[in-house]
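Hi everyone, sorry if this is the wrong subforum. Our group has a chain we'd like a structural model of before ordering constructs, and none of us has done structure prediction before. Sequence below.
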Amino acid sequence: MSHPSIETLDPQEIKDLLDHGKLLLIDVREPAEFAVERIHGAVLYPLSTFDAFALPHDWTRRVVFYCGSGKRSLAAAESVSRRETTRRPIWAAASRPGSAPDSQSFP
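Answer:
Right subforum, don't worry. Here is the predicted structure as tokens:
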């Protein structure tokens, strides 16, 4: 990874954090992709119109960006990391595990 404050989480870690309400899951795919399939509870912020300053200000949860392959989620996390100081210590990038429409599909 190119920024020290970005880490990659595996699907089980993401599921555990979601289950305990400790995660803000941000889908950076396009609206058409989100409409076809998404992980329940994720919020859509497409990378094509991404503005790091427009993200929800929830300082109590870790943030995970996800997409189909990990490329867009990493780009979003790097964008936010460049703009953040010490308010949020870790931004995580993860590729989207396979998911059915509006459901969580973790191991």
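For your construct planning: Residues 98-107 have pLDDT under 50 and may be disordered. The chain has one domain: 6-95.
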